[in-house]
Design goal:
Number of strands of chain A: 0
CATH architecture of the domain at 185-268 in chain B: Beta Barrel
Strand content of chain B: 25-35%
Distance between the termini of chain B: 54 Å
Oligomer: heterodimer
Number of strands of chain B: 12
Order of helices and strands of chain A: HHHHHH
CATH topology of the domain at 185-268 in chain B: Thrombin, subunit H
Number of helices of chain A: 6
Helix content of chain B: 25-40%
Structural class of chain A: mainly alpha
Number of domains of chain A: 1
Structural class of chain B: alpha+beta
Radius of gyration of chain A: 15 Å
Largest interface: A-B, 55 and 56 residues
CATH class of chain A: Mainly Alpha
Largest sheet of chain A: none
Shape of chain B: globular
CATH topology of chain A: Arp2/3 complex 21 kDa subunit ARPC3
CATH superfamily of the domain at 185-268 in chain B: Rod shape-determining protein MreC, domain 2
CATH class of the domain at 185-268 in chain B: Mainly Beta
CATH architecture of chain A: Orthogonal Bundle
Order of helices and strands of chain B: HHHHEEEEEEEEHEEEE
Helix content of chain A: 55-70%
Strand order of the largest sheet of chain B: 1-2-5-4-3-12
Chain lengths: 169, 284
């Protein structure tokens, strides 16, 4: 697949994920927590294609999310940094086994929660009490872990983040 | 020159990271800037349009699945009846569903008529995806004469309550900052004792809001269940709209003359479907 085509498809994929998360997934929410498909896509992009793909995917996803979640830029910042960090592990962490997929998603969700927490502190934005925040992040971990194998499987079939000479997924 | 281009090539990833982080930080800091607001408005309109489509599609799908399920039950119960009768019963069943919907809407309208202000009814088409904030997307926007900061109310179990205010307006959709969002501040007072304070949210995950700047003496007079209403100060929210109830618990520091109260919202935000955007006279 040619690069520009892949970029457009990845953007559409993120857009579809955002729409899905903000509408249909409300029906699946527990304590307002919903699965974060965008995060799973970022993990996949970063580990398959490196820091550049990770942070660009993260920035785009965060920006789209910011259009209807205040303030714009907050999620872009968190997801860009996360995409970059995850991308540094390209070729080191392989999304090869079921257990690895779960571990990676849980780790990334925890990292995203931590970055969000720091974001609240740095920008002086009030947030939920610490205990509630930790509980919601843990619930997000569980939700994302359940969805991860399916989303990874779909991304694998779509071959959007295929790495030349590396068929690890 | 070659050295410079070599530097850019070598540190391409790091420089991109710095650039994206800088853009993100600028967007957060300048989120109230008119230019950033207009970008958000355009983006929000596009996203809102597709959210509307997704919600409609989901409703259609849900209705279809329900109809199929109910049709199956009817078939089981009336297996020995003629096909003509079965079709008639299916039509009848559809009528019941329609009537129920009409009744629910009439009830909502009846409640809405009780409002003292002109209003724009709206339907929820999407919810904010992060639990440390709390936003709702509605299917009305600038085309319906909605402007930023308009107050939004809703009815739940026959009770009217404050939802929040319009935070961003797109052409066909708007973003509502609920009172649970950290960016929504409401000047409020207790209905009985008239003690004032400022209500602000802690995100959807918290499930409650905080009322700050309440004088210490208020705590002695407050009773669990005390109702909090909007004070009308600030000009954004009209007076006397119920916001929440104080059940128990407060936070006070010895050296401060004010306390922070924990308030449970009057509305269950998870169950909301229809909202009413109020046209207050002093709105811009």
């Amino acid at each position: 697949m040619k690069e520009p085509k892949a970029v457009i498809l990845i953007f559409l994929l993120l857009f579809a994920a955002i729409i899905l998360q903000s509408t249909l997934f409300q029906l699946l929410s527990v304590w307002n927590v919903r699965p974060d498909i965008c995060l799973i896509i970022i993990i996949f992009a970063a580990l398959q294609r490196g820091p550049m793909a990770g942070m660009l995917t993260g920035f785009t996803a965060g920006l789209l999310e910011g259009f209807f979640t205040s303030p714009i830029g907050f999620h872009a910042l968190v997801k860009t940094i996360l995409g970059y960090i995850l991308g540094r592990f390209e070729g080191v962490l392989l999304i090869d086994s079921f257990v690895m997929k779960i571990i990676l998603v849980i780790g990334a969700t925890l990292a995203e929660g931590t970055l969000r927490g720091f974001g609240h502190l740095i920008f002086g934005i009030a947030g939920p009490p610490f205990f509630t925040f930790v509980l919601t992040v843990l619930l997000e971990c569980a939700y994302n872990a359940v969805l991860a194998p399916f989303v990874f499987f779909l991304l694998k079939i779509m071959k959007l983040f295929k790495v030349k000479g590396l068929e690890s997924v | 020159m070659r050295k410079l281009s070599g530097f850019f090539v070598k540190y391409k990833k790091l420089l991109t990271l710095i650039l994206l982080v800088a853009v993100s930080v600028l967007l957060v800091v300048l989120s109230n800037n008119p230019v950033v607001s207009s970008v958000t408005r355009v983006g929000g309109s596009i996203v809102g349009f597709f959210q509307g489509i997704a919600t409609s599609a989901a409703q259609w799908l849900g209705d279809s699945v329900n109809s199929i399920g109910k049709l199956g039950e009817l078939k089981k119960e009336l297996a020995d009846t003629q096909r003509e009768l079965l079709e008639y019963k299916q039509a009848s069943q559809d009528n019941v569903i329609l009537r129920e919907k009409v009744e629910a809407l009439s009830k909502e309208l009846g409640l809405a008529r009780e409002l003292d202000y002109a209003y724009i009814p709206a339907e929820i088409i999407a919810w904010g995806t992060q639990t440390d904030f709390s936003t709702i997307v509605i299917n009305k926007g600038a085309a319906d004469k909605i402007v930023k900061d308009m107050p939004v109310v809703a009815f739940s179990g026959g009770t009217m309550g404050l939802v929040g205010k319009i935070g961003a307006v797109g052409s066909g959709s708007s973003v509502v900052y609920t009172i649970l969002d950290p960016h929504c501040f409401v000047s409020a007072l207790f209905k009985d004792t008239r003690y004032k304070g400022i209500v602000s949210g802690l995100g959807a995950a918290a499930g409650y809001v905080e009322m700050d700047l309440v004088t210490k003496s208020a705590v002695e007079e407050l009773r669990p269940g005390a109702i909090l209403v909007t004070s009308g100060l600030g000009g954004v929210f009209p007076k006397e709209i119920p916001v929440g109830r104080w059940k128990e618990g407060y936070e006070a520091k010895d050296y401060e003359s004010v306390v922070k109260l924990r308030i449970s919202p009057i509305l269950d935000f998870q169950k909301l479907e229809y909202l009413y955007v109020l046209k207050v006279e002093n709105q811009p």
